[in-house]
Amino acid sequence: MNLGIINKKRMPVDAKHHIFEEITYQVDGLKVRGLLMLPNENVKRIVVYLRGGKGQVGKVRTGRLMQFADAETLVFGPYYRGNNGSEGKDEFYGADLHDVTEAVRILHQLYPDCAIHMVGFSRGGLQGLLTFQDLPVSSYIIWGGVSDIYLMYEERIDLRGMLKRMVGHPRKQADAYHERDAIAQITASSPPILIVHGGQDQQVGIHNAYYLADQLDKIGTTYRTFYQMEEGHVPRPFALTNTLSCVKQWMMDVETGNIKSHKSSK
């Protein structure tokens, strides 16, 4: 049984503990692609990386996936429909969300005993917030991520033209924006969330993180924050090491039941 995977292509990546494959899987009748980093050892943890950007900007790269890996961690990054050879059209938080949910379900079927952690970076932040609560995942990490579609429209004047083309205007196409309101779908029983953000982020302002944390407080969702106030959208190398240590410690804490409090900030 292929569980939705219809093609695998070995990628020429030299990695000590993993092989890389570009896989094609079926979603809504479309052939959607993604990059899979498969460990040589038994799989004990799965990380699903949700890319930022659109098209070639922010595309899934091997280096990004390798950040989250160890010898027993599988990492997968969906390209989203309409990107990098995937069929269909990117709808920017529309039906492309199915590319995320189907990937997670396939991985869960293949490795039912493994913890699954979703990581949403930049645009992928909202991609994850709109899907994680209904999936068999252990936690969600939103990293430099968009948390609110309305904030995105207000903040990124340079992206308004694209948002109007792909989603519409917040007032004229109110239903489309309401469907993309992730906060309204999160509950107190949603999987725990780690919020990672840089204080100098010029692409996705840190108020996205503050707003999300404030809303999670009101909802009662378990979360933790990790703010690096001197860093931008992507941390500098020395700060990136600390970020990745925090993310991996979070995954371990979730898996061992050490996420105790409703709010725990770092």
UniProtKB/TrEMBL annotation:
Signal peptide (UniProt feature, chain positions): none
GO terms, molecular function: serine-type peptidase activity
Record SUPFAM superfamilies: alpha/beta-Hydrolases
Pfam families cross-referenced by the UniProt entry: Peptidase_S9
Record domain Peptidase S9 prolyl oligopeptidase catalytic: where: 93-234
GO biological process: proteolysis
InterPro entries associated with the record: AB_hydrolase_fold, Peptidase_S9_cat
Record protein name field: Peptidase
Organism: Staphylococcus caeli
